[in-house]
Write the structure tokens for this entry.
Amino acid sequence: MRPFRPFPLDRATLAPIPVLLFLLVLGVACSDKTSGSSVSPLPTANPDYEAVRLFTGLSSPVDLQAPPGDTSRVFIVEKTGRIRIAKHGVLLARPFLDISALVSTGSEQGLLGLAFHPSYASNGKFFVDYTNLAGDTRVAAYTVSSDPDSAVPSGTTILAVDQPYSNHNGGQIAFGPDGFLYIGLGDGGSGGDPQGNGQSLATLLGKILRIDVDGAAPYAVPPTNPFVGRSGARGEIWSYGLRNPWRFSFDATSGAMWIGDVGQDAWEEIDVEPAGSGGRNYGWNRTEGTHCYPGGFSCDTTGIARPLLEYGHDAGCSVTGGYVYRGSALPELDGTYFYGDFCTGMIRSARLVGNAATEMQDWTTVLRRASGGALNQLSSFGVDARGDLYFLLLDGDIYRLRRKP
Ligand SMILES: [Ca+2]
Ligand SMILES: [Ca+2]
């Protein structure tokens, strides 16, 4: 393990500014690559769209959520340990929750995810995923106070997962259309999955979990989970073979789960899982994208779910999964899935028709124009209760996609 890994770029021991230089060098070095097949340019998105900067000066924003039906507020997760509220488009000075005293913030660690209970309006419950001071993953339950813009400051840990390395902590949590809480966990870290966690059903690392936070305290395992009752397997597991599902989301209409799984050295992938299709093996560390890992021409791919999309490290180095657009403001984009790359700020979209990705477009210039052309660390996407789409940059800026006025 190296002492410092840029977030969530874990392939080089580099400080943030050298990372940019590194990427510039990488771009030059790869410009004449003929292998890798992902170089072919995609059509550029319609120039009538723009990204408008709404908020700036946040402390490493990594997630943006809204309680169901709350169209006046968005809640922004700062990796450094606070949840901020933007209300009617204005960032409130006082945080909704501040657990920075509980959180490790090095490399890929931090306060990483937020999910509002589907019945938040009546029960005030929400959940967070963070790295504690020992470097381990905690999922904790909190409640809102009598002030809707302020949470009760102490919560209850509902799930504890030891982390063997500082990187690959996952961190996305989201309620599915079935009302269960899904939790993304990376393979534990280092490189290449040295512990073989991705393919092991005996560990929660390298998985997406599904738990029932209402069925028991601290949670119940849904009896319909795919590995319940299998000897040696953890019942919480929903799907496995994931390296670092840094961001995943549910299509609000179809219920499908879209996963951006960060690759090792060569391939970044997007997986799509039809609603209710638990038990899938996404391949890591036997495969990286559609390719054998660590290389070679053949490997055992029996039972491995192939990604819907992949791109090579000529286009980026760490995929950031996004959302299927289901908002009402841009009806022509209904059903369009947005994703991007942390290292290059690339943004792309695709639509799922049958089992294939179609209508692929490149949106990178939309964000580049708005941000002054810099290489951006695209940490996450977000959607509000209206379905409007946001881009989050680790440097503290948040943008919203809109049609040019
Ligand atoms: Ca880890
Ligand atoms: Ca995979």
Notes: The longest strand covers residues 49-55.
